[in-house]
Amino acid sequence: MRDADLADIERVAWLYMDGMHECDPEKLNAAFHPTARIQGYRGGDWRGLTREQFVGYAADLGSRQAVGEPFDMQILSIERAGRAAVVRVSMRWNGRDYTDFLSMIRRDDGGWSISEKTFYSAT
């Protein structure tokens, strides 16, 4: 993996995590590709959203930072093959523990974007 690719993949993952903690639409929109899908399980319920729906949900919820929720998010692993990567993230968000798998693509301009987020929370 080129150092520049790894740095950009990590930057996008941290932008996503910061955006989640702050529920910041600007940061989340910058991290996700415009056609990104967000899907997974929270408890026993499956959820599937577009980027627009997901960002709107986070924005409506409001900043987790502002309500005193500590930043408890980390990158667990990164795997890459060519222009595709998967970042595994662990986070405590809005009172739940999540594991997120962020599928990323390297765009034609060389930058990386999240093309799909698959998540799981037992509660």
From TrEMBL:
InterPro entries noted in UniProt: FrzH/put_lumazine-bd, NTF2-like_dom_sf
Protein name as annotated: Nuclear transport factor 2 family protein
The organism of origin for this protein: Neoroseomonas lacus
